[in-house]
Amino acid sequence: MTTPLTIIGHRGARGVAPENTLAGMEAALRLGVDGIEFDVQQHPDGELFLLHDLTLDRTTNGRGIATTLGFDALRRLDAGHGERIPTLDETLDLIDRRCLVNIELKTWNGCADAVARMLQQRLDAGWAADQFLVSSFHLPELLRFTAALPAVPVAALYCGIPLAGSEELRALGSRQAHLADEFVDADYVAAVRAAGGRCWAYTVNTADAAQRLTDLGISGIFTDHPERFLPIPVPHAPMSGVL
Ligand code: G3P
Ligand code: MG
Predict the structure, then answer these.
(1) Pick the CATH number of 6-35+94-228 from 3.20.20.190, 3.90.420.10, 3.10.129.10, 3.90.550.10
(2) What is the pLDDT of residues 155-174, one digit of tens each?
(3) Cα distances (angstroms) measured from residue 205 to each of 40, 85, 91, 192, 211
(4) Hey, whose CA ends up nearest to atom 4 of ligand 1?
């Protein structure tokens, strides 16, 4: 591998520690990631918490749809190895500007506005806007976030190739796309790069896959296993969320 590749811990470092937990964030930081990605939902009470699925069954000892449980009850669940479901606030406290924070908006019940408010507080407290990167598959929600907090960069998540090509990124005020590894298309990536942007791919857990994607123009990967790429197997570049 000759091209510097940005290494982002996926859901913390889910191959190493329970996903979307503080232990996962610690593990990713210990491994020296350039950034950490995690999934955020909003509880009807207004709280922002980390969870990938809409249901609790796969990653906790709870059952059913997460937002139907009271927030206190949600917080008492075991999210793996005794870890609790963390809030966004706790997670930002733990990461404390030590790497890029990629927040994926998973729900669209006010989540974008609530995340924007929380990040504004962090900016007021001295965090730089480019220490954050907010992404979502729900592109109208991403647009809503950008309207609320334009200083923070956003990335569009795709599980395919948009018909409008890289033009859609422009409409979002973004220059960054996060692509499913199986749908990475060299022409799309080239168009994004020609417009001054970049593409990262998820979820990449082997050096062979990273090499193939790098050949297609990908410059960053989301991985469950940062330890397979760090410190040296793949050269990695210090990064910021701003292009
Ligand atoms: O943000 C990259 C990746 O996390 C998107 O897919 O399903 O793992 O949240 P998912
Ligand atoms: Mg995610």
Answers:
(1) 3.20.20.190
(2) 999 999 998 889 999 999 99
(3) 23, 25, 24, 24, 11
(4) 10
Q: Which residue has the tokens 């480019």?
A: 130
52 CA closest ligand 1 atom index: 9
Q: What is the number of alpha carbons within 13 Å of residue 4 lying toward its C-beta? A: 7
> How does pLDDT run across 82-120, given as a tens digit for each residue?
999 999 999 999 999 999 999 999 998 999 999 999 999
Q: State if residue 236 touches ligand 1 by the CB under 6 angstroms criterion.
A: no
Give residues whose Cβ lies within 5 Å of ion ligand 2: 39, 104
Ligand closest to CA 224: 1
Domain range annotation of the chain? 6-35+94-228
Ligand nearest to the CA of 35: 1
Q: How far is the CA of 167 from the centre of ligand 2 (A)?
A: 23
